[in-house]
Q: What sequence folds into this?
């Protein structure tokens, strides 16, 4: 059965419009001594129906916009590793992964990232407001996703001359000075009573990736004790737990639009 929601503002506007049109018809278009009382009633009914239809359409549009807003989540990515993170993306595990249309977790380069603090005062770099994950299911259940990102372990190569001729669409490997990685992660439900609005991704030094729903008020780094549990570095030359082929390889560029 379709749901019905009552909006007092819309109802007041509809009533005011209806009474205004009725007053106009009665006093100007069809005064009391008019010879067409039936015509007046017909026009009044038709105009009233138009007003109600317009109000219903507006109410439906506002309801759809609200539902869409509640299903749209931004992403904040926290970087506890010693390396820059580039082009973070993720997608529900059951869906085909195409990095071009996957929700973005942004990039976390230490030189220009935002800076937060753990509860012990230590600094952590992060990127926030990245768009957008559409979540059309209950938010009190975990969602398993594939997270893909590039670890930039040497910015001199990544930004240097050796990268000038690199084309990420035609190379199976990552750009010089970087490696592509992936992890399968459960996005856990939010803590607290407020409806979540964002996904919080945490990239830890031992290669672990954690994820949880949150809000603007609850978006924060992990507790220092949790970060310490994952502080052990990976073996030298290893930059994540699962390296993968460059996910941009073989995907045509989208046409440029003005």
A:
């Amino acid at each position: 059965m379709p749901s019905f929601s009552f909006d007092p503002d819309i109802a007041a506007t509809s009533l005011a419009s209806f009474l205004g049109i009725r007053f106009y018809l009665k006093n100007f278009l069809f005064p009391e001594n008019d010879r067409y009382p039936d015509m007046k009633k017909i026009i009044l009914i038709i105009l009233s129906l138009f007003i109600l239809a317009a109000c219903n359409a507006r109410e439906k549009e506002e309801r759809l916009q609200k539902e869409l807003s509640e299903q749209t989540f931004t992403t904040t990515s926290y970087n506890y590793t010693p390396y820059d993170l580039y082009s973070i993306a993720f997608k529900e595990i059951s869906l085909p992964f195409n990095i071009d249309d996957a929700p973005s977790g942004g990039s976390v380069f230490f030189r220009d990232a935002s800076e937060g603090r753990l509860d012990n005062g230590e600094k952590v770099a992060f990127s926030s407001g990245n768009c957008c994950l559409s979540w059309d299911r209950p938010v009190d259940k975990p969602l398993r996703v594939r997270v893909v990102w590039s670890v930039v372990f040497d910015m001199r190569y990544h930004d240097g001359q050796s990268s000038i001729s690199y084309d990420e669409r035609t190379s199976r490997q990552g750009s010089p000075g970087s490696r592509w990685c992936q992890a399968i992660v459960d996005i856990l439900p939010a803590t607290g009573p407020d409806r979540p609005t964002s996904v919080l991704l945490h990239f830890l030094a031992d290669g672990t990736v954690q994820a949880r729903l949150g809000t603007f008020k609850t978006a924060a780094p992990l507790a220092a004790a949790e970060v310490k549990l994952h502080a052990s570095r990976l073996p030298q030359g290893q930059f994540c737990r699962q390296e993968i082929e460059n996910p941009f390889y073989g995907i045509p560029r989208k046409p440029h639009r003005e």
In short: Helices lie at 8-29, 37-71, 155-159, 224-229. The longest strand covers residues 123-134.
